[in-house]
Amino acid sequence: MGSPQRNPVTEEAQASGLEQAMSNVAAAMSDPSRVAMLCALMDGRAWTATELSAVAEIAASTASGHLSRLLNHGLIVCLSQGRHRYYRLAGHDIAGLLENLMGVSMSPSRMPATGTPRHLRHARTCYDHLAGELAVRIYAFMLEKNWLAPTGDALTAEGRERFAALGVPLNPKPKRKACCPCLDWSERRYHLGGDAGAALLTLFLQRGWLERIPGYREVTVTAAGREALQRLFSIESALTV
Predict the structure, then answer these.
(1) Looking at the structure, do residues 214 and 229 belong to the same domain, yes or no?
(2) What domain range is 69 assigned to?
């Protein structure tokens, strides 16, 4: 049998549909108020409409329309719990898209990196994993010590052994990438993403080495965390709670 015949009309229609879909998503993200909401949701938690309206500095009634548009284009999801409704990012892919967009927006021709608040640059959440200068230094340490493959997309045998010794709760069958490099928008270097990155942040929070700042993406290093970072990753951090 011969190869199936191409249908230029169908291919053109599919390409046109994709272009329109991309345009719609871009338009949904084009409003400063919606961008403020999406950035707030980058802390990985679910927020109420009231909380998001406060972040965006708009009225609750106005926020409702913005949230509907983000929902309709698959950028966020709505969770119902009793009489309350919460909103969160639609998934890791959306978080990655936002992080990459932040990197593009922070190019020197648009906005100097020094304009980013010091605490936000030092340590913050990138949806469900650690980002910022601290995360970049941990990633560099892991590469140097052969915990990660040179490409950063896998833990080595040494890395798996070290993670197990630390008590990092790795998922044996993750539904996403087990490990991947994530470009840090403020540092312009990689930090650890994927399931391994999320598990590492979970451990840091459970051990009390990092503490979240309620309502913000920043995390602070505790006194215990400062000691642990020095002992485990040869990192000194002056920013403590």
Answers:
(1) yes
(2) 18-90
